[in-house]
Amino acid sequence: MPSRLPVPLRLTLATLALMTAPALSAAPAPRSLPAAKVQVGAPLELVHAFYGHMPVGVAVNSQGRIFISYPRWEDPVPFSIAELKDGREVPYPSGVMNSQTVPLNVDRFVGVQGLVVDARDRLWVLDTGTVNLGPILGQQAPKLVGIDTRTNRVVRTIRFPANVVLPSTYLNDLRIDLGQGQDGVAYITDSGAKSGGGIIVVDLASGQSVRRLTGDRSVKATPQFVPFTDGAALFQRPKGGPAKYVALNSDGIAISPDGATLYYTPLASRRLYAVPTVALRDRSVTDAQLSAQVKDLGEKGVSDGLGEDTLGRIYTTNFEQNAIFRRAPDGTFDTVVRDPRLIWPDTLALHGGYLYILSDQLNRQGGYHWGRDQRVKPYALYRVRVQASPVLLK
C-alpha cells in the first residue's frame, strides 16, 4: 500500500496548485512564434543577373573590370569567358578565342572554370579541356592561359604533360605568387572525382609543372560524404542512373599574405588543410614527406570556393548555409553574410573593399535530380562590403 503524505505537506501542495492554476490558464495562447532571422551580416548588393548559360567563376582586376567563366557542363556555352560591360556579357578577350570548331581547336577555350587576376593585372585562366566533367579532350586541351588585361592580349599559354594532368583531371581553381621564380608560380587544384585529387605547381617562366599530393587524405573527398542543400540530401543522380555520393576532390584554394602557406579543401569535405608552399615547390621533397607537413586546420563547413585577404583571413563559401564565413588566423569564424539568395555561392573575389560572390545554383542542375533541371534563372553576382583587400603577391 503506498505511503500517504503528511497532512501539512498535502495542504501545501494543494495550495500551490490553486495558486498556480489560474495563472497558467490565464496566459494567452501564442498566435505565432518569432520568425527566424533570414538575413545575417552586411546586405547583399546585386551586381549582375545572368539569364543565359550558367556562370561559375569571377575575377576582378585593379580597375574594377569583372571577368566571368562558364565551364561547358549541362548548358550550351557560346563563350567560356566574358567581361561584364555596361550590363552585358561580352566574350573575352575575343569572340574567336571563345568559339569552337569540329574537330576541336585546342588553341581556343574549351571549358574554363578557374580564373584569377595577379599583381600585374594579368588574368590567369584555367581551361579544363573537358565537357560536362568528362575526361580531358586530349592532352593539348587543358591549359593555363595568361591574358594581359591592359592590352587584352594572350601573353602566355602553358600546357601540361601526361604525368601532371591525367585523363581524369579536372583543373578547378588556382592562386598566383609572382614573388617566386623568374615570373612567378601558379598553384592549381585538381578536383577530378577519379584523378585522386592533387595540387599542381607551375613555374610561369619555364612552363614546367609538377603534380603533388595525389591521393593524399587532404585532397580526397570524404568517403560517403552527404551535403544538404535546399532542405534535402544532395547526391549525384544522373538521368537513368544510379545515385552516387558527391565525390569531388581538392577544390577551393587560398594563399597566405606572405605566400608561405597554401590552404585548400576538397569539395566533398568539411575540413580545411594547409601546406607550406616552399615544400610544394621543392621537387626533392617526396610526396610522403610533403604529406607529413600538411596541417588539418579542423572544421570549416562545406565549401566550394575560398578567398583570402591581406589580414590573413580565409573566406569560405558555405552552400549548405547559403552563407559566406570568414576564418581568422586564430581559427575563429565570423559570418560575413547569410542570405537565402546565395544558392550555391561558388566563387569569390575581393576588390575595392567589396567581396564579390557568384551564386550559380550548381546543386539544382539536372545531374543531381535524375536529369530534371531545377535551376531558376537568373543566376547572380552579388557583392558585400567587407573593408578588406585581396592578396596580390609580387
Automatic annotation (TrEMBL):
<protein>
    <submittedName>
        <fullName>L-dopachrome tautomerase-related protein</fullName>
    </submittedName>
</protein>
<dbReference type="InterPro" id="IPR011042">
    <property type="entry name" value="6-blade_b-propeller_TolB-like"/>
</dbReference>
<feature type="signal peptide">
    <location>
        <begin position="1"/>
        <end position="26"/>
    </location>
</feature>
<keyword id="KW-0732">Signal</keyword>
<dbReference type="InterPro" id="IPR017996">
    <property type="entry name" value="MRJP/yellow-related"/>
</dbReference>
<dbReference type="Pfam" id="PF03022">
    <property type="entry name" value="MRJP"/>
</dbReference>
<keyword id="KW-0964">Secreted</keyword>
